[in-house]
Amino acid sequence: MIKKISHIAIVVPNLEDALGFWVNTLGLPLSHVEHVPDQDVDVAFMPSGDSEIELLEPISAESGVARFLHKRGPGIHHICFEVDDIEQMLKRIKDAGVPLINEEPTIGTGGKKIAFVHPKGTGGVLVELYELTPEESARRLERLEDMRRRLREGRRIYAAGIRAFLTRLRPQSGFNTGNGSDSQN
User: Fold this and answer.
1) What is the pLDDT, as a whole number, of residue 185?
2) pLDDT tens digits, one per residue of 89-138
3) H/E element holding 67?
4) Which of 82, 119, 86, 77 is nearest to 101 (CA)?
5) E strand or H helix at 11
6) 28 with 53: CB under 8 angstroms?
7) What letter does residue 100 receive in the DSSP assignment?
8) Pair 42, 48: CB distance under 8 Å
9) pLDDT tens for each residue of 151-160
């Protein structure tokens, strides 16, 4: 059974440029960006109500997303539905004669089970199905902790750089500051 629309994925040639519209203009919050090496994409996740907008930037010219971008240009890539039992849904779709890209689920971002339905059987729309797994919440927590750690490290690095810069701006000992205390009479 379908539970909800999970996300709509949009292919973009450049995440930073695209985020200008989706985050800065529309005001969607950027929850995180994830590198997905097995699909050769970087993905920006922006929640919107109970769903998300995902921006996909190909990082390899050989990836399926890069081929999509080259052939069709930027735009909607797929729609994803959360299901309660992905294996049962795949069987139902296969029994209906609809071609599948994945006959068995694979593990996607965050540890969820995913599978794709071929656009030839859906009226031209690439459909992704996903099922939450118990590992997903733990992986999301790990990812959040990793982001927090990187932010803390980044703050320390920036603070050290600013301190070093300000230290170099301070007058050196023996330097004439112009207040007359260094001059001899």
Assistant:
1) 47
2) 999 999 999 999 999 999 887 778 999 999 999 999 999 999 988 766 66
3) helix 64-72
4) 119
5) strand 2-11
6) yes
7) B
8) no
9) 788 788 888 8
Q: How many CB atoms lie within 10 A of CB 180?
A: 8
Return d(Cα 15, Cα 51) in angstroms, integer: 19
Structural contact between residues 43 and 65, judged by C-beta atoms closer than 8 angstroms: no
Residues ≥6 apart with Cβ < 8 Å to 29 = 23, 46, 47
| Tokens of residue 86, six digits | 């992905």
For tokens 């779709």, name the residue. Answer: 93
Single out the residue of 133, 153, 134, 155 nearest to residue 145, CA to CA. Answer: 153
Dihedral angle sign, alpha carbons of residues 89, 83, 39, 13? positive
**Half-sphere exposure of residue 155: CA atoms within 13 angstroms, side-chain side:** 5
Q: What is the dihedral of CA 63, 65, 66, 68, to 10 degrees?
A: 130
For 51, the token pair is 């769903």
Among residues 44, 126, 49, the alpha carbon closest in space to that of 81 is found at: 126
